[in-house]
Amino acid sequence: MSDKMEDLKEKTKKTAELYFQGLKGEGAFNLWRSFDKELAKDISLFFTGKLYAREKIPHRTRQLAAVAALTVLERTEELKAHLHAALNVGCTRQEITEVIFQMATYGGVPVVNTGLKVFRTVLQEKGLWESPSPPQ
């Protein structure tokens, strides 16, 4: 195998570990793999090893963009994975919450509510959920 392919595999592995460490459930890669191992590998090498590993923008920015898009599109399973990734690359709870709230402008309040529910679940899974005190 060529050095270039080995480098891509290593970059894919490191990026996947960075983004999706601690993610519970089957995950997209395992789903793909259950149908076609070779195609799953090719898809993963492209998305994780080439696209998400790019350093043209910081990982934090990339994940906030993914959270915004997936919130508006109501793609809750992918949103959950990218909320984990956003936290894993250093996005704060406040930053992520603000991005989800801003999506009311583009998708309406129902998508915000769905996004916040998914985010609450992710925070609970990571042991980070603290409900704010009710207003006085």
What is the share of helical residues?
over 70%
Strand content: under 5%
- Mean pLDDT, rounded to whole units? 93
Main structural class:
mainly alpha
Tell me the number of helical segments per DSSP (H or I, 4 or more residues long): 8
Based on the coordinates given, report the CATH architecture of the largest domain: Up-down Bundle
Globally, the shape reads: elongated
Q: Describe the biggest sheet?
A: none
CATH fold-level assignment of the largest domain:
AhpD-like
| C-alpha end-to-end distance | 64 Å
The structural domain count equals 2
- Topology as a string of helices (H) and strands (E): HHHHHHHH
Kindly provide the name of the CATH class of the largest domain: Mainly Alpha
Poorly predicted spans = none
CATH evolutionary superfamily of the largest domain: AhpD-like
Radius of gyration: 16 Å
- The tally of beta strands, per DSSP, is 0
Walk me through this protein's architecture:
The chain is mostly helical and 136 residues long. It has two domains: 1-54, no CATH class; 57-127, AhpD-like. The protein is 74% helix and 0% strand. The protein has helices spanning 3-20, 27-35, 37-51, 59-73, 76-88, 93-102, 104-107, 109-125. α1 packs across α3 (37-51), α2 (27-35) runs antiparallel to α3 (37-51) and α6 packs antiparallel against α8 (109-125). The protein is elongated and about 65 Å long. The protein starts with a helix and ends in an 11-residue tail after the last helix. The mean pLDDT is 93.
